[in-house]
Each structure stands twice: as C-alpha cells, then as structure tokens.
C-alpha cells in the first residue's frame, strides 16, 4: 500500500494502544501506550519474557481483542468504528492464525479442519477441495493426510495442517503465536521454513516467540516488556535455527 505522497502506508498500525483487564477491583495492564506498524510483506518476530504482553499485542494486531484506549488501523480503517460482525469478516478474509497448541479439532479429518475457514464463504465444495489441497501442499504437508484425524499425525505434521488452515483463505497476514513451542528442533525448522516461504510468496508474517533462534530467522525483531515495545533489532542470520540446523 502506497500513500498519495508516495510514502509507504502501514498495513496495520497501532496508535497509542493500551489494554487493561479487570477482575473485580484488580486491574492488570497488558499493553501500555504501544505504537506499532506492520507493512505488506513484513517478516517480523515479537519477543519478550512470559507475561510481557506478547500475546495481547498479537490479539490486537489480529483484531481478536479491542484496546482499552488507542486505535488499531487495518488497511486504513479505524477498527474501533467497526462492529463485531465486520471485524469477524475481516479476520476471516484478511488474517490467518497459527497457534502453539495447533487448535485442531480431533473429531474432524485433516481435510475438514483445513476447510473450516472456507465454509462461511459459500464456495462450492469442489472449489473448497482444491483450495484445501493447495494450502496443504504449500504448507509442506502430504495429501495422504487429508483423510486422517489430527491425533494420527505428529506434532510437526499437525502444525503444518494448522498453517494450511491459516492460509487456505489466502489471507494477507499470517499471525503465529509460538508456532514452534511444542515441536522438536527439526520439526520447528520445517515450520519456520514454511512460514519464510509463504512470506516470499507475498504474505505478511508476524511470529511471537521466546526462542532467539526462531526470531533470528525473520527480518526484524521487536522486544516487548511490561506491555511496552522496548527495542527493535536486526536479526543475526548466523544465530538462526535454519542456519544452526543446516
């Protein structure tokens, strides 16, 4: 996206965003006056200690939560002015989510899990079937998995199915919350390599991670602590997971 003056326009922008959670009289501040910009084709990592606000920040970027104060701008739209139905449609069409725990439904087949985001779109089943196959192949999966249940696959295979589900609707942005947290190192390398390939194809990719070797696979690292962005760093490719396992 390019502004009329020729400057690059953020795909997603957080402006002075704060988030508080209240339980009774106890108020917890998860995010504090965060300014953050994400551009098309970005490949970034967000790092920070446990409880630092990483997931809360990802939830704001992914329109899963609303800020207590501040604004989240998505493709030049002030999302605070959008109702829940419109936000849900934006998430379904523009965003793909990958989680540490995969979040697959074990009573459904791999095919049915990947197909889920396509159901609300009203596409013919034959079209959905082709999109599911394409997404699984792009994610490094095998078509023979389609009839299996998720619990018949390894953790690394399940995460590739989860990535396929995230990209099946061809979203602009992929948000991955600790995508390698439950995987061995070789499986983690495969998953990160897949996300990097998707970035090369044009997807914007944001990875929340506690692992410096994963963060060093990206193009930019942001550090969050106590709900605030406290640093921005260039990755060191020599210290990346891909380099160390090559």
Topology summary:
Elements: E1 12-23, E2 26-38, E3 43-47, H1 54-61, E4 69-74, E5 77-78, H2 84-94, E6 95-99, H3 110-115, H4 125-138, H5 155-167, E7 173-177, H6 185-200, E8 204-208, H7 212-215, E9 220-225, E10 228-233, H8 241-244
Parallel strand pairs: 3-8, 3-9, 6-7, 7-8
Antiparallel strand pairs: 1-2, 1-4, 4-5, 9-10
Helix pairs in contact: 4-5, 5-6
β-sheet strand percentage: 25-35%
The low-pLDDT segments are 2-6
Strand order of the largest sheet: 6-7-8-3-9-10
Strand runs, count: 10
Identify the overall geometry: globular
- The sequence of SSEs as H and E is EEEHEEHEHHHEHEHEEH
Q: How many individual helices? A: 8
Helical fraction: 25-40%
Could you describe the 3D structure shown?
It is built from eight helices and ten strands. Strands 6-7-8-3-9-10 form a six-stranded mixed β-sheet, with helices on both faces. The chain is globular. It has one domain (41-63, 87-244): P-loop containing nucleotide triphosphate hydrolases (Rossmann fold, 3-Layer(aba) Sandwich). It has 246 residues and is of the alpha/beta class.
Concise synopsis of the structure shown:
Helix content is 31%, strand content 26%.
Any key phrases for this structure?
single chain; alpha/beta; Rossmann fold; six-stranded mixed sheet; four-stranded antiparallel sheet; globular; disordered N terminus
């Amino acid at each position: 996206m390019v502004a009329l003056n020729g400057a690059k326009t953020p795909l997603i922008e957080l402006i002075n965003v704060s988030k508080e959670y209240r339980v009774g009289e106890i108020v917890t501040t998860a995010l504090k006056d965060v300014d953050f910009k994400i551009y098309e084709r970005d490949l970034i990592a967000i790092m920070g200690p446990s409880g630092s606000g990483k997931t809360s920040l990802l939830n704001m970027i992914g329109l899963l939560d609303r800020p207590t104060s501040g604004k989240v701008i998505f493709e030049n739209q002030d999302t605070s002015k959008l109702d829940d139905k419109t936000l849900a449609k934006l998430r379904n069409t523009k965003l793909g989510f990958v989680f540490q725990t995969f979040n697959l439904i074990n009573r459904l087949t791999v095919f049915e899990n990947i197909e889920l985001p396509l159901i609300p779109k009203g596409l013919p089943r034959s079209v959905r079937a082709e999109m599911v196959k394409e997404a699984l192949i792009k994610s490094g999966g095998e078509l023979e998995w389609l009839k299996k249940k998720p619990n018949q696959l390894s953790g690394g295979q399940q995460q590739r199915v989860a990535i396929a589900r995230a990209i099946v609707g061809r979203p602009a942005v992929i948000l991955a919350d600790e995508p390698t947290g439950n995987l061995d190192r070789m499986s983690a390398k495969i998953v990160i390599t897949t996300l990097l390939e998707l970035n090369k194809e044009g997807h914007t990719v944001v990875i929340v991670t506690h692992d410096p070797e994963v963060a060093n696979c990206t193009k930019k690292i942001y550090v969050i602590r106590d709900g605030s962005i406290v640093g921005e760093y260039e990755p060191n490719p020599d210290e990346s997971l891909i380099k160390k396992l090559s």
